[in-house]
Amino acid sequence: MRRLRDDQPRMHLVMMLTLTFSTGIVDAVGYLGLDRVFTANMTGNVVILGMAIAQADGLPILGPVIALLTFLLGAALGGRLLRGARVGWSGRSTVTFSSTGALLVGLGVASFVATPEEGTPWAYTVTGLLGLAMGLQAASARRLAVADVTTIVVTSTIVGLASDSRLAGGDGTRAGRRVLAVLAILAGAAAGALLLRVDIGVGMAVAGGLTMLVALTGHLLRARRAELAAAAGAAAAEEAAAASTGAATK
């Protein structure tokens, strides 16, 4: 366990896969419980919106527009908050992921108290806030720069998996993490559909709890990184002092 904790790139991968799973939950809740709206997968929203504009029967317009705009707002907010921060986990990452998790949990509790019925102002409010939270999470996850795991889409991951495979003449680099990313969002969507049978708010609360767990883990890893850096610095200083003392006695 200690070895895993000290292997921060691997821990970042585990955290990103956890966020990918929670994203699957949120999109399942949005699509099945909020009138076929994706609040994380904007590709799906754009496609649905295009078909709705072409007057395909029964497809929503307002919900996808709200989700798209608030996702953009959340991503812009995340970009602003993380501007100038180091690549990888920083103190600002803790703030942004914690905020995302808290917003999801709050929406889950509020939706449990007052169910967002399709087509109502409350449902559109929930859609908008979910889009905002997912945009903020996506911008924050992008800053971690974990290859092949974006937390919100897996199309590019699948392309990379296939095009770099041995079947395509590649060496299969990072195939394992790519498969895990696909399975994570698949499992999350299945879990979200099952949780929706209990209550629409449960899925949001579970996703929020997982995001807050990731935020706590990242914060502790950052503290551990500082501890290791301080220990390395102290060891280097001791070696330098010993070398200096040895040279003086000769």
Would you kindly provide a written description of the structure presented here, covering whatever features stand out?
76% of the residues lie in helices and 0% in strands. It is globular, with a radius of gyration of 22 Å. It has 250 residues and is an all-alpha fold. It has helices at residues 2-6, 8-33, 42-53, 62-81, 91-113, 121-144, 155-163, 175-196, 200-249.
Helix % is over 70%
Give the termini distance in whole angstroms: 45 Å
Based on DSSP secondary structure assignment, what is the total number of beta strands? 0
Number of helices: 9
Major sheet details = none
The shape, in one word, is globular
Low-pLDDT windows of residues: none
Radius of gyration (Å): 22 Å
Question: On the 0-100 scale, what is the average pLDDT?
Answer: 87
Helix-strand makeup class: mainly alpha
The secondary-structure element order is: HHHHHHHHH
Strand residue content: under 5%
Oligomer: single chain
Any key phrases for this structure?
single chain; about 250 residues
Short account of what is shown:
The protein has 250 residues and is mostly helical. Helices cover 76% and strands 0% of the residues.
List the helices and strands and how they pair.
Elements: H1 2-6, H2 8-33, H3 42-53, H4 62-81, H5 91-113, H6 121-144, H7 155-163, H8 175-196, H9 200-249
Helix pairs in contact: 2-6, 2-8, 2-9, 3-4, 4-6, 5-6, 5-9, 7-8, 8-9
